[in-house]
Model the fold of this input.
Amino acid sequence: MPLPSASEIKTRLEQASTWAREAGQITLRYFQRSDLQVELKSDSSPVTVADREAEQWIRDAISESFPEDGILGEEFPEKEGESGFRWIVDPIDGTKSFIHGVPLYGTLIGIESGGESVLGVIHMPALDEQVYAGKGLGAWYVAPGAKPTPARVSSVESLESGLLCVTDVASFAQAGRGTAFERLQERARLCRTWGDCYGYLLVATGRAELMVDPAMSVWDAAALLPVLEEAGGTFTDWRGNSTIHGGEGIGSNGRVLPEVLQLIEAALQ
Done:
């Protein structure tokens, strides 16, 4: 299947940016509410009415505007498409932060075409920050109340001078990768758990050099790869492959990636 045209990507990117913001407003209606009910899914991960309502809203918007596009989301069954475009949606990335009233959660929208990630949106509803990108269209950062400006990764050359972000320290040991985390933490100038998609937004806007996850679903990753690559950085699996299907993720400014991969490889031997 031929790659989509720039106009096809741009049209969908404009909608995805708007829809992520509007779905984020739905989540804010439930954010920091004391009566929010939390359920556990079969994998013991939490879910709320905000997750489901926001995803359903996005799905309805996609189906109305692009009825032939496929949709994959975290909370509902996949809808097959015929156009070659597949939207990949995570209505609340960072549900654990969300249910604890912590603003470091986001709404993620990505699109695949021909197996390639062609656009992504990271929107932080409670912080009112957004980064969006389309293949060949650049990456753009929108600060609260401001116009879009180019999003660029930092020029830091070494992890020793960089900020490492992770979501959950315990998750590395749970995945059998505790030593890898320890090596990265020891090398980094600073390590913070500003995690989930916010860590990747920090990398894309030059405020962090590295964000690492030992386990990810495709809806966690789909929006991240185009954002980071268009911002001049990288999104890879733990072997350095550019993919959203690796079940893990490394977001970097590109300059520190060889060093990071070397540390990981040594730790996993």
The chain has nine helices and 14 strands. The mean pLDDT is 96.
